[in-house]
Amino acid sequence: MPLPQPARLRRLTLVLLGSALLVCAGLGGVAWRVLGCERSDYLDNASASWLNSSEEYLFACGTVWHSLDAGRTWKGLPSAGLPRLLREGRIAADRTAGRLYLAVLLAGQATLRCPLCLLTRVEPAMFISEDGGLNWLLIRRFPEGPAGLLRFRAIYADPDYSDAAWVILATGERSVYYATNTGGREWRQTCIEIPPEYCDPPDLFLEWNHVRHDVDEYNEIIP
User: Fold this and answer.
1) Would you state the torsion angle of the CA atoms of residues 122, 132, 41, 48, taken in this order, to the nearest 10 degrees?
2) Does pTM top 0.85 for this prediction?
């Protein structure tokens, strides 16, 4: 029996992978629970509300979870707008009531040239919700990278100012800081961290729209 031609083999691979993804997409968060995903494994990623210390949010096993008793009990939210194949992500609550940021890794795009890219490449992305996690909108895509190396190290919403948050995107030991002071509409790269050099939180950028600063002729902040 002759061996399949390379092009035909690539198409067959795509069909098989696509079929598997369709099954998982149909199941959504249920698929991850069937595969053994446990919410308790991700509790360290929970984010408390700055407005109510007993209120927490968590994204795990394909579901946005909400707690009103400091994480003792959780309720899954019906979150419209999120891809169904997401397993985990990092979530943060803005000081603006109801606004949440969710940083996730999307699967890479499979092509005839790279049929396994949906397994070997990931694309970092940011979603936002303005109604406490019920509806989500994709607001930013970041440069893609290799699966297993590229990850969101952390995401923070500023405790003092609304519309302000920052995220740390890591590839190995290299970390890139992105920040917003416009409620997620725009994200700016503020620092690249490569040990032994480390970045500080982008405090001045986060507070820019809330605190008046004097600047010189070069638009530099005057101490």
Assistant:
1) 120
2) no
